Amino acid sequence: MIKLTYFDFNFWRIDILRLSLSFAKIPYEYEVVVRKEWPKKKKNFPFGQLPIMTLDGNQFSHTHTLAKFCATKSSLYDNDNLKILVIDQVIDWANEITNLIAPSIRAALREKNFKKSKKLREEFIQKEFLIWFSYLERLFINSSKEGRFFTDKFSIADITAWRIIYWFRSGILEKIDITFLKQFPNLEMFYDKMCKFKDFTKLKEYKIITSN
Fold first, then answer.
1. What number of helices (H) and strands (E) belong to the chain?
2. Is residue 86 part of a domain?
3. What is the pLDDT along the chain (212 residues), one digit of tens a residue?
C-alpha cells in the first residue's frame, strides 16, 4: 500500500499524486500532518519536506520524483522520450511558478508582514505572472496536435497544469486577476475541456479540491 503524507490543506504538490493514483484506481493511504505540529515532526521526514511517500517502510520525497512514480504506476507517464520531456517540463513549470509566488505567501503567513507580502505579490504580478503562463501556453501549442492534452494522451502533465490553473483562478491568491486565462485562449480551451473530462471530474479527489 502506498502511503502519502501532507499538510492539512489541499495543494497541488499532493493533489497531483492523489489524482493520478485515483484515476488508475490504485489504493493509497493518506496521512495528514496538522500545520501547527509540523515544527515538531519535521525532523522525522527526509529533507524536512512534504509531501512524502512511504512504500515498503521507506520514505521518499520531492514532488517531481513522487509525481513521476505515481504517474508511471497509473500509466499517466509515457515511454516516448520526447513526450517524457514535455511532461517533465510541465511539472518543472509548476514548481517554478510556485517558487516565484511563494515569497509573497510566506511573508503573509509566516512573517505576518502584510506590507512586504503586498509588495512581493505586486512584483510577481508585474514581472512574472503572465509571462510564465505564456510559457505554458506556448508549450501546449507546440506539443499538442489535437488541442486537448499536452501530449495528446491524458497524462500527469494535464493534471498538473489543470491544478495550477485552478489554484490561480480560485480567488485564494490575493491580487491575482481570476479572469487572467482569457489572455491565453489555448490554455483556456484546455482548462475548459479538463473540467468537462468525466473520467477526471468524477474522481473523489477532484470533488474535494473543487469544493473548497
1. 10, 4
2. yes
3. 999 999 999 999 999 999 999 999 999 999 999 988 988 999 988 899 999 999 999 999 999 999 999 999 999 999 999 999 999 999 999 999 999 999 999 999 889 999 999 999 999 999 999 999 999 999 999 999 999 999 999 999 999 999 999 999 999 999 999 999 999 999 999 999 999 999 999 999 999 999 97
Q: Which domain holds residue 96?
A: 81-203
Q: Would you state the cell numbers that stand for residue 154, as one nine-digit string?
A: 491524458
User: What span, in angstroms and rounded, lies between the C-alpha atoms of 59 and 61?
Assistant: 7
Residue 29 lies in a domain: yes
Distance CA 140, CA 180 (A): 17
* End-of-domain residue from the set 22, 47, 73: 73
Closest-CA residue to 61 (of 80, 42, 38, 74): 42
- 156-169 and 63-73 are packed helices; what angle lies between their axes, rounded to 10 degrees? 130
Is the residue at 58 inside a domain? Answer: yes
Residue 25's CB: how many other CB atoms inside 10 A? 8
Query: First-to-last CA distance in the chain?
Result: 28
Q: Is 149 helix (H, G, I), strand (E, B) or coil?
A: coil
Which is it for strands 28-33 and 2-7: parallel, antiparallel or unpaired?
parallel
Return the CATH number at 197. 1.20.1050.10
The string over 27-38, giving b where at least 16 C-beta atoms fall within 10 Å of a residue's C-beta and e elsewhere, is ebeeeebeeeee
The overall pTM is greater than 0.90: yes
